Amino acid sequence: AQTIHQWPVAEIKAVGSPLSLGCTIKGKSSPNLYWYWQATGGTLQQLFYSITVGQVESVVQLNLSASRPKDDQFILSTEKLLLSHSGFYLCAWSLDLVEQYFGPGTRLTVL
Amino acid sequence: AQSVTQPDARVTVSEGASLQLRCKYSYSGTPYLFWYVQYPRQGLQLLLKYYSGDPVVQGVNGFEAEFIKSNSSFHLRKASVHWSDSAVYFCAVSSSNTNKVVFGTGTRLQVLP
């Protein structure tokens, strides 16, 4: 069975500090991978997606970047956090470009 | 451009009552439609999906939704809600030729015991 793991579970970071969030998919080969951001109490905003290793497409950047160093790994990062980066970050995978399965999320608080 | 409207930010019903959560979408092509549920501090879980065929689709835990093309709607229904159905419900739209998914703003459902 496929599993999706996100790390860390939660982060508290200072404005201007760097950030790296990770997502790993096990049990699926060559999945499409996605990053979403959700403001507290808000809707989901798709940030990035990746169809294959080394290839990442930006939907909305929000001063963030993403990379896919391995088939089963998707990384979201920034060198300088902003207050507006606070929220809930969700990773998702799909095989058919449509139906997506979400990870448990990482809650980020920027102070 | 794709868009999804969930006009009700909050819905409160009593346990055992029927439920309808509204969703209207805007999409120029053939849409793929989804309902997801999010429990507190968790990721999203897929409830049901519509690609084509029978416009009434069945999902998990007794949920169903009906695709009405003429009305651009995909409302979620349940005949009898349980207190454990309390959560936030998101409607979403996509298509087969894009990796972009657009979510609605969500409807927070509170089921009173």
Key phrases:
heterodimer; A: 111 residues; mainly beta; Immunoglobulin-like; seven-stranded mixed beta sheet; four-stranded antiparallel beta sheet; B: 113 residues; six-stranded mixed beta sheet
Can you describe this structure?
The complex is a heterodimer of chains A (111) and B (113). By secondary structure, chain A is an all-beta fold. Chain A starts with a strand and ends with a strand. Chain A has a single domain (3-110), classed as Immunoglobulin-like, CATH 2.60.40. In chain A, β5 and β6 form a beta hairpin. Chain A is globular. Helices cover 0% and strands 58% of the residues of chain A. Chain A has no helices and eleven strands. In chain A, strands 2, 4, 5, 6, 9, 10 and 11 form a seven-stranded mixed β-sheet that branches. Chain A has a four-stranded antiparallel β-sheet with strand order 1-3-8-7, with no helix packed on it. Chain B is globular and about 45 Å long. With 113 residues, chain B is an all-beta fold. In chain B, strands 2, 5, 6, 10, 11 and 12 form a six-stranded mixed β-sheet that branches. Chain B has a four-stranded antiparallel β-sheet with strand order 3-9-8-7, with no helix packed on it. In chain B, strands 1-4 form a two-stranded antiparallel ribbon. In chain B, β7 (56-58) and β8 form a beta hairpin. Chain B has a single domain (3-112), classed as Sandwich (Immunoglobulin-like), CATH 2.60.40.10. At the A-B interface, β5 and β10 of A face β5, β6 and β11 of B.
Summarize it:
The complex is a heterodimer of chains A (111) and B (113). Chain A has strands spanning 3-7, 10-13, 19-26, 32-38, 44-52, 55-58, 65-70, 73-78, 87-94, 101-102, 106-110. Chain A has 111 residues and is mainly β.
Domain count of chain B: 1
Give the N-to-C terminal Cα separation of chain A.
38 Å
- Tell me, rounded to a whole number, the average pLDDT of chain A: 93
Question: What integer value in Å does the Rg of chain A equal?
Answer: 13 Å
| SS summary, helix count of chain A | 0
Structural class of chain B: mainly beta
> What is the CATH first-level class name of chain A?
Mainly Beta
Intertermini distance of chain B: 41 Å
Q: What's the SSE pattern of chain B?
A: EEEEEEEEEEEE
Shape designation of chain A: globular
Major sheet size, sense and barrel closure of chain A: 7 strands, mixed
